[in-house]
Design goal:
Four copies of one chain form a homotetramer. By secondary structure, chain A is of the alpha+beta class. Chain A has one domain: Transcriptional Coactivator Pc4, Chain A (Transcriptional Co-activator pc4, Chain A). Helices cover about 20% and strands about 35% of the residues of chain A. The first copy, chain A, contains four helices and 13 strands. In chain A, strands 3, 4, 7, 8 and 9 form a five-stranded antiparallel sheet that branches. The first copy, chain A, has a four-stranded antiparallel sheet with strand order 10-11-12-13. In chain A, strand 11 and strand 12 form a beta hairpin. In chain A, helix 2 runs antiparallel to helix 3. The longest helix of chain A is centred in the last third of the chain and has 18 residues. The first copy, chain A, is globular. Chain A starts with a strand and ends in a 25-residue tail after the last helix. Chains in contact: A-B, A-D, B-C, C-D. At the A-B interface, strand 1, helix 1, strand 2, strand 4 and strand 5 of A face strand 6, helix 2, strand 10, helix 3 and helix 4 of B. Strand 10 of chain A pairs parallel with strand 1 of chain D.
Chain lengths: ~240, ~240, ~240, ~240
């Protein structure tokens, strides 16, 4: 029988309502987000932030979705020019119920990586590799060479805990410049993984921009009067 | 063969359209919600309420979702400061088709508890324990000691009825001050559980605040002109 | 191997774009909806209609969702006072590709019946019984006796076609006054049932009113300043 | 163990952020969409476009959803007069990481075909046949004879790669006038298919128009005062 208890230190149900004194860093997570965001983008004044976080013995894992971006086309419409993602943030424990957010490690899941995670069977595992030289750029130059190339490489693996009881989520970050390797590992219960799977399945069409395409109902209605036939937009028979 | 009949006393398909005379308490459910809400929050004037209720022989179970709350950040954006939840309300039968709403017992499911419930296999069971001393507070002090501590403890268990035919949902409330133990139990058919599973899966990203993050499309579009590159917000490569 | 072909008379992919000449009745489906609606409700001027219809040899089956209704409370908020439903409309074939819409039979699925249908296993069947004397009323008197009582009884059964290839959907309408029994049966392919299951799963939280509760984000944000503590609305610890 | 790597040429995670130099055609995909759209519909000024694309060795496959269209009824409401669809666009590779978008082949999935695809078991396959003479028309004449009849026939097949590792998606286009047969085939990993299944399941209620029916909450609320009973709209008991 599965048992969940609010007496256990699993604090996943509390957004980020942790006391500041729990953090060894001087910034709370919210303040960090708020500050870095404020510097970069004046449009943030109306942005909303929400994460799902699981706090475990050696590290914590927080996930939050990131919207895709669209750019205007000459026709007046707009097209997605960068996929959204789901950001995983790991931060190590530095004492009982204390986590050091300044030592966080980030991993951004692409739509296909989200697809891999949500279709994972109970006994299956998966692994993703990221290299900053392959990062997509705001200038639409996906194959540009970043100054970080070769310096930092990241991998994320998700492996079953056994007996259909959840997964280990592990991040490894190799920094060739600093000659360091960071590893953080967070065990995820079956219930917590169900939350992630459901939240990621919900997020997927949104980070792909499909919700914006499909819920855009502002277009005036066609009149029901017969009209001169002309080549159909959106038809598979016109090229 | 599964048979559902509208002649049976299972009244789950009727929102709360029960005649007042069915209630032994002097308040209908709606009036109770409306009254208590009106006293506490002036913003309720535009709030909406909808529940799914199953009425059974010894007790009834009603579930409804509760929105998360966000607070303004200095940057002008906002962050979730309290998760939403799914509230289970149990109330005992006091006669044929009569239920005493004044003797109701409440149990609020956190996102992780919702995850546990929606991933429950046909032969699996789960159990959750709640203690008021662990309740999250509007002042962001999750570990504060409540004056109720130790007085009241609640547990919720969901156990299979057998032969893939549904579940028993049981609540036990121990009140040490009043030296009482209340138990209410409601059998849920497979069809009713399918409604709950679907509704809870729908509700989960909303009580986590993710729908508000992901459907917030008001941000102005990026221009398609090349621009000076600057550190990317939302990138896994910037810290 | 499953094969679907647009050459077959399965016209499910064409909303209601059937030529009027296909109908033996004098009204097209759209006109029928539009006319009956126009007489009853002045608010319909902005209503939208969309159905999913499968046309088969002996009969056609069309399904469309119906919104729940809310009523104002004294507090200014509103509560759901009648569940929505998913309406099934059957109409018999009266020739090749001709259907008589005036002989239609209706069956409205409640949320729990929708739950039963979407959780149906490949080899399972289900059956629902409706009696007009049990219909919910706009006056919130669910147990009132209708003048139709005993006159008309309806049942809907869904039974597997075998080999995981779909279902038969059958409606039987007994009219004691007219001493008639009408039966209509429509075979549904696995692909068509997948459309129905997905559409019904999408519709379910909407006909329960939960989407309106959960996507109502107009409430002003809480200020982040500490404030005097008061009993929490929505808490399981307050009664 | 499943492994996904960003070093591989699988570029599915990058919307359409491919350098123009990768394309042998003179138009990028976005420009093609923007131009053809601009000529046909003045309402496009607010339209949004987003696709999911997988680039493989011999060809690429891009999918994007297309909204249904509604027309005004005399009552003032509106009804769906053409289903939406999900468009598959195939284009062949003409070198390493070079694709010729001018040689694209289109295939528009109807709601039922989407239902077939999202219910496909790991070892199952499906096949769809399209003939332009059967295309739905903006004039609501589904059985009209197109001037293209018999000239072009298309088929799409989806077959398992084996060992639960994904599918082959194949398009064949027979052009009797030009005496040509074009075939394009794209292998889809299990993770990529999970993205498609999730995105198509999300899109399905939208291309059926159900989201517009179900999220249309503008109707004034019913007053809670008792009123004269009249025949219920949306009741299965009124005809």
């Amino acid at each position: 029988m599965l048992r969940l208890s609010r007496f256990l230190p699993s604090a996943s149900r509390r957004g980020f309502d942790l006391k500041e004194s729990l953090w060894s860093g001087s910034l709370t997570f919210q303040q960090a987000v708020s500050t870095s965001a404020g510097n970069l983008d004046e449009n943030l004044s109306s942005k909303k932030f929400a994460s799902y976080t699981v706090f475990k013995g050696k590290a914590a894992l927080s996930i939050h979705p990131i919207l895709p971006s669209f750019s205007k086309m000459e026709s007046g419409g707009s097209r997605m020019n960068r996929n959204g993602s789901v950001m995983l943030t790991f931060f190590p424990a530095v004492g009982q119920r204390k986590y050091d957010y300044t030592k966080k490690q980030l991993f951004a899941l692409s739509p296909t990586e989200v697809g891999s995670l949500i279709s994972l069977g109970p006994a299956e595992s998966c692994e993703f590799f990221h290299d900053p030289s392959m990062k997509s750029s705001p200038l639409n130059q996906p194959f540009c060479v970043s100054s970080h190339e070769g310096q930092v490489k990241k991998s994320l693996s998700i492996t079953p805990l056994g007996s259909d009881s959840g997964y280990f989520v592990n991040i490894t970050v190799l920094n060739n410049l600093q000659k360091t390797t960071d590893r953080l590992s967070v065990p995820i219960t079956k219930a917590e993984f169900a939350v992630m799977r459901t939240a990621l399945s919900f997020a997927l069409p949104h980070i792909m921009g499909w919700d914006q395409v499909l819920t855009h109902h502002a277009a005036p209605l066609a009149s029901s009067k017969p009209r001169v036939e002309r080549p159909r937009l959106d038809s598979e028979w016109e090229r």
